[in-house]
Amino acid sequence: MTVSVPATSANLGPGFDSLGLAVDLRNVVEFHPSKFFSVSIKGEGENNPKLKGNNLFVSIFNEHYNRLTKKRQNFKFTFYNQIPMSRGLGSSSAVIVSAIASAHEAAGINVSKRRILNHALVYESHPDNITPAVMGGFNAATVEKGKVFSQKKHLPDYIKAVVVIPNKQMNTARARTLLPKSYSKENAIYNLSHTALSVAAFFNEDWEILKLASQDRFHQKARMKTLPELFGVQKTAYESGALMSTLSGSGSTFFSMVYDEDSVAIANKLSQKFPEFVVKILDFDNDGLIVEK
Ligand SMILES: Nc1ncnc2c1ncn2[C@@H]1O[C@H](COP(=O)(O)OP(=O)(O)OP(=O)(O)O)[C@@H](O)[C@H]1O
Ligand SMILES: N[C@@H](CCO)C(=O)O
C-alpha cells in the first residue's frame, strides 16, 4: 500500500489561515503488515533519530487504525520524504493527512477526501495547508463547527512555483507567537479585501493582479524580520518578473508564482543572489492525496 501527499504553500500573503495551494514535491509512504514494527526513512529526516520511532505519522496512524479495527497490528513503514521540515511547505500537514489516509487503507475502509480533511483538522486547527494537501490545486477554506468548507481551483501548467528554501527552520507554533493579539479595523479590512481579490484572481486566472492582491498586513513582516534576507528574496523575485511572492506558510520558505517561460531566469537570479538557500522550480499539483493499493 502506498500513500502520497504534496507539499503546500499557505496564506499566499493576506489569506492567513485560509488560502493555500499544492506544489509537486511529495512525501510518499509504503507500508504493509509485519511481525515487527519498523520505520525506514529516505530523504528528508533520514538522519533524524527522533523520526525512527513513534513519530507524528506513527502516533496518528495507530490512533486511527486502532479506532477503526479495534485491533493492534505491527506495520513496516518506508518513508520517501521530499518535503523539508519546518520550512513552511506543509510538512506537518502532509504527515497528518498521509497517516489518516494510510490507517483507513490499512483497515480496508474506503473514506472520502472530505472526511480525511475533517479528521486532519483535529491535529492542525487551521485549514490552509491540510486542504490543498488533500485536494490539490488552489483552495480557499474556512472552518465551521469542526468541519472544513473549501473551494478548489485547478492550476494550469503554464504557471510554476519558484521556492527559495532557507537553511533555517521556522517552527509554526513559535512563528504564531510573533503575531499581534489583535489587528486594527483598517488592517483587517486591508487583508479582507486583498484576500477577496486574490481568490477572484485565482478563479479568473488573472495572474497579473496577484502582485497587488497578495499584499498582507497580518503576519509576513513580523515573521520575515527573524530572517531579514527574505525581504531581499521578495525584492529580487519581483525585480526578476515574479507574479506574486509571499512567505510560504509560517516560513522560512519564500514562494513565488511565475510564468513557465520566466521560471529558469527567475530561479537563476535567486540562486546567484542567495547561494546559501536552496532554490527549486516546481509544478503545481492538482491531485492532492493519492492512495494506491
Ligand atoms: N516527515 C516527517 N515525519 C514525521 N514528522 C514530521 C515529518 N515532517 C514534519 N513532521 C512533524 O511536523 C513538525 C513540523 O511542523 P511545522 O508546522 O512546524 O512545519 P511545517 O508544517 O513544515 O510548516 P508550515 O505549516 O508553515 O507549512 C516537525 O517538528 C515534526 O514533528
Ligand atoms: N496559516 C498558518 C500556516 C502555517 O501552518 C500560519 O501562518 O501560521
TrEMBL record:
It catalyses: L-homoserine + ATP = O-phospho-L-homoserine + ADP + H(+). Pathway: Amino-acid biosynthesis; L-threonine biosynthesis; L-threonine from L-aspartate: step 4/5. ATP binds at P84, M85, S86, R87, G88, L89, G90, S91, S92, S93, A94. GO terms for cellular component: cytoplasm. The keyword Plastid does not apply. HAMAP family: Homoser_kinase. NCBIfam families: thrB. This is Homoserine kinase. It comes from Sulfurimonas crateris.
